[in-house]
Write a structure and sequence with these properties.
By secondary structure, this protein is an alpha/beta fold. It folds into two domains: 97 residues, no CATH class; 216 residues, no CATH class. The protein has 14 helices and five strands. β1, α5 and β2 form a beta-alpha-beta unit. α2 runs antiparallel to α3. The protein starts with 9 loop residues before the first helix and ends in a 46-residue tail after the last helix. The N terminus is likely disordered. InterPro entries: DUF3431 (IPR021838).
Length: 366
């Protein structure tokens, strides 16, 4: 994720992520990735997940040991000491965290929908959540975007946990074998959200990770949306988050769906969110470009690193309790997600449309 700063080209980076065996020859880069893995290992401990649960720790330990053979040992030792210190602090914080979780009073689905979209699935299958449904393209509804934005309107009375998501139940980017949002929300581990403050609803890296945008070195050739987004990102970033350096690399799981706590949201002032909304309302950029810019800014707005790409195995385990997956790569786990070749969900999905137009046959993961 930080390999560009160490002299790797974009092509090198893609090859690195696609072929894990190359990791054993990249020297100093390993220490960075091991520190990342150690941090997530510490988070798992703070979340109360057993250190050896379902082999995930063994996988992580194996990767860390192999890295250690060719990495900066002192750096790894320092990272391990940091992890140990965080683990020791768990005894002091577990009680208060459990108390906070036990006293959870409110949780809200904040849904961005289109006029005429099917939304009954939310009340039918997620009735234990309160839902605020914003209709993007209907000015006559009570909740519209961007003139009525949830965080601004509720800043002083936010619920304990919010999940920001899209309105259609089945969408190409939903991290589920049949692209279903229902099991994603049902399996969401609220203790982890409390602990981390922010959690993407997607663990598969592609698209978005590890390096979706290079704001300081925008491409001049390539897909139009990518070119226009990179060209406009730095200026938009400076407008929305003044006094924050524009990152050289931005990466995060797509696609603007995440869970966040009230405290995490309030790490920025209401004025900051009003400034972000003002940019969204006043920009001359096409909607698809301004939306893409925000898509790769939300994690930064919520105080996460510019490159925020949790290892897939750790993400599935911590965020959704899926700790027995087979994950041979840091980028994805087997039998969880296939990137469809066409983004439009087939009519009648999942009962119809499987095996056609680039969509897998439901049950492919069984």
């Amino acid at each position: 994720m930080h390999c560009v700063a160490l002299g790797m080209t974009r092509s090198d980076m893609k090859q690195f992520m696609g072929h894990v065996s190359l990791m054993f020859h990249l020297g100093k880069v390993f220490a960075i990735h091991v520190r990342l893995l150690l941090n997530f290992q510490c988070w798992r401990i703070r979340d109360g997940i057993p250190h050896n649960e379902d082999g995930i720790s063994s996988l992580t330990s194996m990767i860390m040991l192999d890295f250690a053979e060719t990495s900066n040992i002192a750096s790894l030792q320092n990272a391990q000491k940091s992890c140990d210190a965080q683990t020791r602090s768990t005894n002091r914080t577990t009680s208060s965290r459990k108390q906070a979780i036990a006293t959870l009073q409110s949780k809200e689905l904040v849904v961005a929908s289109l006029k005429g979209g099917e939304r009954t699935w939310i009340t039918e299958h997620l009735s234990d959540w309160h839902a605020s449904i914003y209709v993007v393209d209907d000015a006559n509804t009570k909740l519209t975007i961007p003139s009525n934005r949830y965080i601004i309107d509720h800043y002083d009375k936010l619920p304990d946990i919010m999940v920001f998501m899209h309105g259609e139940r089945y969408q190409w980017h939903n991290d589920d074998p049949i692209y279903d949002a229902v099991p994603i929300i049902r399996s969401l581990r609220l203790p982890h959200v409390f602990s981390a403050g922010y959690a993407p609803l997607r663990c598969a890296w592609i698209p978005g990770c590890p390096d979706e945008l290079y704001p300081l070195n925008p491409i001049e050739k390539g897909p139009e949306d990518r070119r226009l987004t990179e060209a406009a990102y730095a200026s938009a970033f400076e407008t929305m988050l003044p006094n924050t350096p524009v990152p050289s690399v931005v990466g995060a799981p797509c696609s603007s769906q995440f869970a966040v706590t009230r405290d995490q949201v309030r790490k920025r002032s209401k004025l900051a969110y009003e400034r972000i909304r003002r940019w969204a309302m006043e920009t001359d950029l096409p909607d698809r470009i301004s939306g893409r810019i925000l898509e790769y800014m939300w994690h930064i707005i919520m105080q996460m690193p510019a490159v925020y790409c949790p290892p897939a195995a750790e993400c599935y385990c911590m965020t959704f309790g899926l700790c027995n997956l087979t994950c041979s790569r840091i980028t994805n786990c087997e039998k969880r997600y296939i990137l469809p070749k066409v983004v439009t969900v087939p009519n009648g999905w999942p009962e119809e449309g499987g095996g056609r137009n680039g969509w897998p046959v439901p049950g492919w993961n069984e």
